Structure formats: structure tokens, C-alpha cells
Amino acid sequence: MGKTFYLMRHGETLFNTQKRVQGWCDSPLTENGIELARKVGHYFTEQGVKFDRAYSSTQERATDTLKLVTTAPHQQLKGLKEMNFGIFEAREEELLPKHRPGSRSFEDLLVPFGGEDIREVGQRVRETIISVMETVFDETILMVSHGAAMWGLVQVLDIHFPPGVFLPNCAILKLTYLDGQIRFDQLIDPNQDFITYDF
């Protein structure tokens, strides 16, 4: 059967609106980010989803988002932290290296600039999730992380999103854990009236 859990991206931040790189650096949630996170909380309530426990990355934007979604006991985990973008931290997104032809991510392009390989980040997130899910039984779990960290997990799990489908702020991955494996069930996009994607 497996254990269902939800992995969510943080709400919109100041740096998101300024199109600045936001990896290990941080910036506060905007009013829009706060409002959408609250809507996610209402959505889960309407769906009958009550969280017993919640986890966020150690970064403020993720922890603040979590607290707007649920009042469940929570814990910060470094393994859910965003990717390190090296010298591009807090700089304009347009300065980032361009993806290689045919690539869906930065791959290892940021490593020479002091950043991380996105697949290694995805592996870090995967291992963190597994360590948590091995300790829970019938509990309903929420985890709040970051765009690149979640996209790295998507790469590691070999999930193929249709062209043009990404992970906007507050996007939610519904996942199942069973016997050391993580299975993708659904993408829920609160930016589009909680439209769901199954692929």
C-alpha cells in the first residue's frame, strides 16, 4: 500500500519577484506568498487531509510557509535545503549559465562556480525523505522544500513532466513511500485553482 506524503515548495518571496537567484540565501515571503500558502492550508482542510507531523528545510521561507499551511508539530531538516548556487547567490537569474541542449536542469554546471550538482541535491532530498518515512507509520506528513531541490528529486526519481509543466511557488508533489522507494502520484498546482496532473 505504501505511505502517502506531500512535498511542497515554499511561497513566493521578495527575491522571486525580483528574479534573483535564491539558493542558500534567503528572503521573506511576499503578501502573495503568504496568501497562497494560507489557501493551500484551506485546500488540505477541504480535502480532509490533516497533518500529524511536518518538516521544512532550515531556511526561513520554507519554515514560514509550513506554519501558514499547518499547525502540526514541525522540525527543520538540512536535507530539505535548497541547492547552493555558488557565486550566483542573490544575483540576477539572467546571469546563470544556460542549460545544455536537451537538458531539463543545470546538471553540474554550477559546480565550477562553488554551487552544487542538482542531481546530488535531489539525492540528498531523497535520502532525507526516506530517513523520515522510515520512522513514521500511519501519520500524514507534510514537507516544505524549494524549487531546485524538488526539481533535483524529480530528476533522481526519473519523473517526466510534460513540456511547460514546472514547480511554481507552493506547488505540491503527492508521493508514496514503500520499501525504500518513492513513487510520484500527483502534482497539485495551487496557482491554477489546484489543478492536478497525473503522468
From TrEMBL:
To which species is this protein native? Streptococcus minor
Which keywords describe this protein according to UniProt? Glycolysis, Isomerase
Q: Does the keyword Isomerase apply?
A: yes
**CDD domains according to UniProt:** HP_PGM_like (cd07067)
Its organism's taxonomic lineage begins at: Bacteria, Bacillati, Bacillota, Bacilli, Lactobacillales
Under the heading PANTHER family, the entry gives: PHOSPHOGLYCERATE MUTASE (PTHR11931)
The record's InterPro entries line, in alphabetical order, gives: His_Pase_superF_clade-1 (IPR013078), His_PPase_superfam (IPR029033), PG/BPGM_mutase_AS (IPR001345), Phosphogly_mut1 (IPR005952)
Give the EC number: 5.4.2.11
Any one of the GO BP annotations? glycolytic process
SUPFAM superfamilies assigned to the protein according to its UniProt record, in alphabetical order: Phosphoglycerate mutase-like
* SMART domains given in the database record: PGAM
Keyword match Isomerase: yes
Binding-site residues for substrate, renumbered to this chain = 9-16, 61
* Annotated family: Belongs to the phosphoglycerate mutase family. BPG-dependent PGAM subfamily.
**The protein's name:** phosphoglycerate mutase (2,3-diphosphoglycerate-dependent)
